Amino acid sequence: MRLFATVILAGALSLAAPASAQVVLPGVPLPNVGDTVGQVTGQVEGVVGEADLVTGRIARKLERARLSRITDLVRAHPDAIALDASGNPARKGVLLAMGADSASLAAAAGAGFAVIGHEQIAGLDLEVTRLSVPGGMELADAERALKQLLPDASVSADVLYAQAGRSIAGNGKGAPNSPTIDTPVGMIDGAPGAAIKVAAVRGFASGGGTPSDHGSEVAGLLAGQGVATIRVADVYGTDPAGGSALAIARGLGWLVQTGSKVISISLVGPRNPVFERAIGAVQRNGVAVVAAVGNDGPAAPPAYPASYPGVVAVSAVDRHDRGLIEAGRALHLDYVAPGAGIRAPDARGLWGKVRGTSFATPLVAARIAAALGATAKWRPILDREALDLGPRGPDKTYGRGLVCGNCAR
Fold first, then answer.
1. Alpha carbon 257 to chain centroid distance?
2. Residue 185 and residue 334: Cα distance in Å, rounded?
3. Do 142 and 113 meet the contact criterion of CB atoms below 8 Å apart?
4. pLDDT tens, 359-403?
5. Would you say residue 111 has pLDDT above 90?
6. Could you tell me the residue ranges of all domains in the chain?
7. pTM score, two decimals?
8. Which of 250, 287, 303, 321 to pair with 125, CA 20 to 30 A apart?
9. Which fold has domain 84-159?
10. How many CA atoms lie within 13 A of 322 on its CB side?
11. Topology of domain 162-385, per CATH?
């Protein structure tokens, strides 16, 4: 039976793969398994175990689907998005530099890299210089050239980060629990709809504040676990190049300034020096950062910000407490939480099923916020709560264990 189900799954993925390479619109998940997993998981859950599901063949198909979506995204928005030197989607025509002196910037300007502006990110003590790409030069070539011109500075593209979950259906009604958690929680995402009550929303991309399903679902899950104060940094808006590293850094600064003690990030993307330094500054302010590992399977590159040191990396389990077949990976894993068979509200306030590590992340963030209400040391509380799954002790599939096992189900 196990072998038969595995063959069925592999065949279904082969049929579904072309449908997963879709054009992605602003605020809609980019590296998300979408139809590829959605068409097959219902057939195999309860039949095969995790070891049969997570095969090398499936992992490779998920990785190809991720690359296809990136290609489609760039083709859909050629005026706004380009690939950086590492093949990651990024804001077109702009490069970011940190630590460049005035003489070096003058030399770069002489080579066609005009300074767009210097920005001190409030709340993080982080300064970033934005430079334009010389006319006619590809972003990837410009990034390599600027690194040579500014050897003592940190140079990068303004890479884009994608939401790590998807809606399956939204046609029911529901209501969040009464607020019971006083610790303020911030989130980096799209904006929630009016039906989800949050303390504040601030936009960090053009069209900021435009309701999104993903932002609504993450905020709804936080509220559903009793978080009383939720602030949302909308890094997508209606911007085709939404979810950029600089927009996220700005959002993090605002969330720290306004008092968030936990920040939930259900986004994934590549390593980036601006984002990395922003995360470090947030952590130095004593704020816990909780992030999803993504849904591109175990063959995908390590997910960031989940892979940054000190970030609480979260994966997801299905309704049988098995790791999701599409769960990505990080350089470390802290906890898992339910990420399938759970319900959340969309931008219209309609409650439906969602799936992905995106939705496990706010559940863990809410539990950390609850623990911070009792003590500044939340880790021992979550470790006592966590149900050890898989091999005894921490492991690569379940981390330190399952948190919030009965939440949102």
1. 21
2. 19
3. yes
4. 999 999 999 999 998 777 899 999 999 999 989 999 999 999 999
5. yes
6. 2-76, 84-159, 162-385
7. 0.85
8. 303
9. Alpha-Beta Plaits (3.30.70)
10. 16
11. Rossmann fold (3.40.50)
